[in-house]
Amino acid sequence: MTTEAATRRMPGAPCWVSLLAHSLSATQEFYGALFGWEFRPGPQHFGPYARAFLDGREVAGVGELAPDRHLPVAWTTYLACDDADATAEQIRSCGGTVGVGPLDADDDAGRMAIVSDPQGAIFGIWQGRSMTGTAITGERGTPAWNELVTRDTSSVLTFYEHVFGYEAEPVIAAGFDYLTLHLKDHPVAGIHGVGNALPRDRGSHWMTYFAVSDADAAARRVTELGGHVLQPARDSAHGRLATVSDSEGAVFTIIQRD
User: What is the rounded distance in angstroms from the CA atom of residue 154 to the CA atom of residue 161?
Assistant: First the structure.
């Protein structure tokens, strides 16, 4: 459940994660204490925004919502593309929705759009130029995996296959509806069908996993910082993990890495 740098640049591969929160300072304090991130000012076209760094390498983005925007706070997964305008048009033609953009971001950094699939799961597309995305993944304090959580995998698979050219490989396990998405034989993301367990208040959504050295300790730290543990630490085929939310309610998963 990690991808090499070259793979992350392939069209369709998750290449960036970004969070819009109500308080930029409180969010920086939370993730700085949890993951050891340091922050530097980013593009301010849409309001206050900062880029998170770990050991000098860029790992994520955090922005602040306008005071009158009472939107759910959530992490957004960005998928790489070669042409944001063409990809946005293909998303529309395949039953998805383009909510924002495509538009240029931060001078020559890249071109992006915020979109949703036919089931309503929001994600971004990113045509990188000078900034191609997350500098490192899979190490402690960095994104380790991205997966779509939806009612069932079959309902949206065709959309993602047509738009991004994924090849899907089912995970064979009794009662487990999961597909691993591949690009050129490299696993890059997943689709998890959870049936009636899909949260009614969130619907279909993309989940970001962050690597930690100790999932149990990290979950305790989340609560100390004002967040919540939604699913306690448990073992999985890819490592011990827990689903948590930050101090403003943004949901993410922490997964243990040795």
Answer: 11
